[in-house]
Write a structure and sequence with these properties.
The complex is a heterodimer. By secondary structure, chain A is of the alpha+beta class. Helices cover about 15% and strands about 25% of the residues of chain A. In chain A, the strands form 4 sheets. Chain A has a 5-stranded mixed sheet with strand order 3-4-7-6-5. In chain A, strands 1-2 form a two-stranded antiparallel sheet. In chain A, strands 8-9 form a two-stranded parallel ribbon. The longest helix of chain A is centred in the middle third of the chain and has 15 residues, at about 85-100. Chain B is of the alpha+beta class. Chain B folds into 2 domains: about 1-35; about 95-345 and about 385-459, Cytochrome-c3 Hydrogenase, chain B. Chain B contains 20 helices and 10 strands. Chain B has helices spanning about 5-10, 15-20, 40-50, 95-100, 105-110, 120-135, 140-170, 175-195, 215-240, 245-250, 255-260, 270, 280, 305-330, 360-370, 370-380, 425-430, 430-435, 440-450, 455-459; strands at about 25, 30-35, 55-60, 70-75, 80-85, 205, 210, 390-400, 400-410, 415-420. In chain B, strands 3-4-5 form a 3-stranded antiparallel sheet. The chains are: A alpha+beta, B alpha+beta. At the A-B interface, strand 1, strand 2, strand 5 and helix 4 of A face helix 4, strand 8, strand 9, strand 10 and helix 17 of B. Chain B: GO terms for molecular function: NADH dehydrogenase (quinone) (non-electrogenic) activity.
Chain lengths: ~260, ~450
């Protein structure tokens, strides 16, 4: 076959640096979980032959300068030139220093992945960082597009993530803030004071993940009924559903079907 | 009614006076709180006792003019709304959770059902996020991108037409309502021709489109452009200069720029406050920077301004569609899916003579000549493709504002988490700010100018 159809690229089993190997980061990146086996055969009665599969889930880890971004279309590992992201990081770190904070203490890590800039913020400083980002003339992230929760049950001590996307209309930029909280202490400061738009968004995230936003004016469920038990978007909350009969066969509920891990 | 019961209702009278709809009674099981609602005369009596005409009214969730199942909780004093709150969640269908149990490609079938008035924007935003995660943004064929833009602009017109029609209906302007739905029907017919369905298309897929334009599609599109150009001025004649329309809309639902910014409003509401912010210009996607169009603004900050803006935006959309048609003429018919066969569903996908499934030729090919092709087809459809771990945010300028998708992958064949930042959800927060202090009748106008669709709000 002469056509480049992806099949003839380096064999991922032999070439660990093959680019077509999904999400391959070698030993780099941050481990948030391990997937074992396939088709849900975790009970010990594995007849699938896939029980020995082990796949470590690595999210992009901290990035070293320069942050770039790399030009569109560049190879993932290609070296970056200093760019807008460095400017934003410099301004933020400078502004934090002016307020007597140590940037290294506030910003756990800075990640550049897929031409997007993410600051992982220590949760205690979230409100101050957000206010700085909004008010500093060189930053001016006036608009927050709300908060999205993510649950990583295997990422011990940082199971719950809250992800914010901030948009600067003045400078036409977009950045992401990420904070984490452990399942045992699911508290994150509320940003309603800085971005009133987050009122409903934080209620939604509380509703679905049980993340408690301290300082929110009225943190109640918003989508689910008021007396609902549990937080539906958490990974340990089942999807539910009922099996359906189709042409004489039982089709199991979606969360009971075979799945590829 | 037995004498005892009569007696007990007499003792409960004071409780009723305090709160007409609630009561308590002692039973052997403990205190029972009764919140089933009182009789109207009890409510009226309680209202008459208090000096003012303060009353709390539930508008919805089944009120015909609240755009689906939106519940407005209004505290009114006479005809004035003193406090207004939204109750939402009546249309929650757990789409974000469901996505986590299907493959990335199957996800389009779910997301298209969120805001059902702008299905193609949901699909496009979702696919842009998945493509960003896969790192294949630059590999999408031009033809697919141009058709995406064209479908989105058609959808923008149909969404704005629903706004015009329902907004007109709520004011009693039935002619506008009928004209709006008449023109929307033309677009739905086009969608049916192109995608096979009037709504819930699942036409835009990660990597491109499910198929190319059908034979006769271009002619139908040109025909539509002609008709719509003729019909669009009708709305100006019917409504724009209409004194009743003006009297009902002008100065209603007022929200200035600082209010919009604080509440994170986007789309026509933000542009009605004078800020020409449009993601198509600010952060171009799908090659919008290569199209020639304007972002209209007004500075009235009110419902009338938003009405004018939406009409103007439809005009701009027609301009963009014209340019898309020109480009499609020049682009030769070709693939509308990425080349990478690890992502693209079998490219030979076509309708068989029975109108369903794959073409016989393709089936004959994979069943008879290539075992590998059969296996590959089966694996790709049942298992799906793997997406490298990480997260991505993609946003498009939907008819209602910024529609953002935050997609997280753990490297599996199914999304780990997808969150939609729906513009209706965010914009609906401004209802209190727009309605409090106004008249009850103006609540309808203000909510209509927000143009919320509950499918998107509740997801």
């Amino acid at each position: 076959m002469s056509q480049d159809n992806g099949i003839n690229k380096p064999n991922p089993d032999q070439d660990v640096n093959a680019h077509n190997l999904p999400g391959h980061r070698g030993d780099q990146g941050e481990v948030v979980g391990v997937r074992r086996g396939m088709f849900g055969a975790n009970s010990g009665a594995d007849t699938s032959g896939y029980g020995g599969l082990v796949r470590t889930v690595r999210l992009p880890g901290g990035t070293t300068r320069p942050y770039g971004p790399a030009p569109s279309g560049a190879e993932p590992g290609a070296p970056r030139e200093p760019g807008v992201f460095d400017e934003i990081a410099d301004e933020l770190e400078g502004a934090l220093e002016e307020q007597g904070l140590l940037p290294a203490e506030v910003i756990q890590k800075t990640v550049v992945d897929r031409r997007e800039l993410t600051f992982h913020i220590e949760r205690a400083y979230l409100l101050q960082v957000a206010r700085t980002l909004r008010d500093d003339p060189a930053l001016r992230f006036e608009m927050c597009t709300g908060v999205s929760g993510v649950h990583f049950p295997e990422d011990e001590g940082r199971e719950l993530h809250a992800v914010y996307h901030l948009r600067s209309l003045t400078h036409n930029r977009l950045i992401r803030l990420e904070v984490t909280a452990p399942d045992a202490d699911p508290h994150v400061p509320s940003l309603v004071e800085v971005y009133p738009t987050n009122d409903w968004h934080e209620r939604e995230t509380y509703d679905f993940f049980g993340l408690v936003f301290d300082g929110h004016p009225a943190l109640t469920r918003i989508i689910m009924p008021d007396d609902w038990q549990g937080f539906p978007q958490r990974k340990d909350y089942p999807l539910g559903g009922i099996p359906v009969e189709y042409k004489g066969a039982q089709i199991p509920a979606p969360d009971q079907r075979r799945s590829y891990s | 009614m037995s004498p005892e019961a009569n007696h007990s209702s007499h003792t409960a009278e004071e409780a009723h006076a305090a709160h007409a709809t609630a009561g308590t009674r002692e039973t052997t099981e403990g205190t029972v709180y009764d919140v089933t609602g009182g009789d109207w005369d009890e409510i009226a009596a309680a209202a008459a006792k208090s000096d003012d005409e303060r009353i709390i009214v539930n508008m919805g969730p089944q009120h015909p003019s609240t755009h689906g199942v939106l519940r407005l909780i209004l505290e009114i004093d006479g005809e004035t709304v003193t406090e207004a709150r939204c109750g939402i969640g009546y249309l929650h269908t757990g789409i974000e959770k469901n996505l986590e149990y299907r493959t990335w490609t199957q996800g389009t079938t779910f997301v298209t059902r969120m805001d059902y008035v702008m299905p193609l924007f949901n699909e496009a935003a979702y696919c842009l996020a998945v493509e960003k995660l896969l790192g294949i943004e630059d590999q999408i064929p031009d033809r697919a991108t141009v058709i995406r833009v064209m479908l989105m602009e058609l959808n923008r017109i149909s969404s704005h037409l629903v706004y015009l029609a329902t907004g007109g209906m709520e004011l009693g302007a039935t002619t506008v309502a009928i004209a709006g739905f008449r023109d929307r029907e033309m677009i739905l017919d086009l969608f049916e021709l192109i995608t096979g369905l009037r709504m819930n298309h699942a036409f835009i897929r990660p990597g491109g489109l499910s198929q190319d334009l059908p034979p006769g599609g271009m002619d139908a599109l040109r025909e539509f452009q002609k008709k719509m150009r003729k019909n669009l001025p009708e709305y100006d004649k019917l409504a724009t200069g209409n004194p009743v329309y003006k009297a009902r809309l002008q100065g209603i639902g007022y929200l200035d720029l600082s209010g919009c910014m604080a509440l994170g409003l986007t789309g026509p509401i933000l542009r009605s406050a004078g800020l020409p912010f449009d993601l198509r210009k600010a952060q171009p996607y799908c090659g919008y920077d290569t199209y020639d169009f304007d972002v209209p603004t007004v500075d009235t900050c009110d419902s009338y301004g938003r009405f004018l803006l939406r009409i103007e935006e439809m005009r701009e959309s027609l301009r963009i569609i014209d340019q898309c048609l020109e480009r499609l003429d020049q682009l030769k018919p070709g693939s509308v899916m990425v080349e990478d066969k690890k992502i693209a569903w079998p490219a030979q996908l076509a309708l068989g003579p029975d109108g369903l499934g794959n073409s016989l030729d393709h089936i004959k090919n994979i069943m008879g000549t290539s075992m590998e092709a059969l296996i590959h087809h089966f694996k790709l459809v049942t298992e799906g493709f793997r997406v490298p771990p990480g997260q991505a945010y993609a946003a498009v300028e939907s008819p209602k504002g910024e529609l953002g998708v935050h997609a997280v992958s753990d490297g599996g064949t199914r999304p780990y988490r997808v969150h939609f930042r729906d513009p209706s959800f965010t914009n609906l927060q401004s209802m209190s700010a727009m309605c409090e202090g106004g008249q009850v009748a103006d609540v309808i106008v203000a909510v209509a100018s927000i143009d919320p669709v509950m499918g998107g709000v509740d997801r």
